TrEMBL record:
Gene3D superfamilies: Ribonuclease Inhibitor
PROSITE patterns: PROKAR_LIPOPROTEIN
Superkingdom in the source lineage: Eukaryota
A Pfam short name: LRR_R13L1-DRL21
Species, as recorded: Salix suchowensis
Protein name per its UniProtKB record: R13L1/DRL21-like LRR repeat region domain-containing protein
R13L1/DRL21-like LRR repeat region domain mapped to chain residues: 2-57
Length: 189
């Protein structure tokens, strides 16, 4: 199996079959509306995982060592990470890894509607960063992403001073007051 999508799971913890040894070839994972799960499986052990999307997981308060697993190089292939509508997410820990590099291949990071998250970890490999409808203090973390080439900010009334200092690689900047304008798509005939 290469892709796994779980939506609306009501359990308080994920089943054992979601561990790395049972799903070693996963490339994409999407967990949506798993409202009762407080802890995330050790996805960092999945050697081939390239895309991870976590949305509407209201009881998750921290992303930390339980998600990284006990491997030497957590998330060795992860390229895109999306965290959306995680209303109680407060902390994203990376300092517990004892010097191990995390997210070495992560190029695209999207954080949307995580109002309690106030700081992002420094991830030097990120090139595309999207922050939407979060606490304005989260925007201060953008200063640490000096290698980004694309930045999208959405849903903020105020932008912090020095937001774009030291961003010599930035090629594209999009700032939206509210949501992006809807684009009408006409069905093909």
């Amino acid at each position: 199996m290469k892709k796994l999508e779980i939506s609306g799971y009501r359990g308080s913890k994920f089943p054992d079959w979601m561990l790395e040894s049972r799903l070693p070839n996963l490339v994409g994972i999407s967990l949506q509306s798993c409202m009762n799960c407080e802890h995330l499986p050790p996805f960092g052990k999945l050697r081939f995982l390239k895309h991870l999307e976590l949305t509407r997981m209201d009881t998750v308060k921290c992303i930390g060592s339980e998600m990284y697993g006990d491997g030497e190089n957590p998330f060795p292939s992860l390229e895109r990470l999306t965290l959306g509508e995680m209303m109680n997410l407060e902390d994203w820990e990376t300092n517990t890894m004892g010097g191990r590099e995390i997210f070495t291949c992560l190029h695209e990071l999207q954080i949307e509607k995580c109002p309690k998250l106030v700081e992002l970890p420094i991830i030097p490999s990120v090139k595309t960063l999207t922050i939407a409808d979060c606490a304005v203090t989260l925007l201060s973390s953008v200063v640490n992403f000096t290698s980004i080439t694309s930045l999208e900010i959405e849903g903020f009334d105020v932008l912090p001073d020095g937001l774009l200092q030291n961003h010599t690689c930035l090629q594209k900047l999009d700032i939206w007051e509210d949501q992006k304008p809807e684009v009408a798509v006409k069905p093909a005939k």
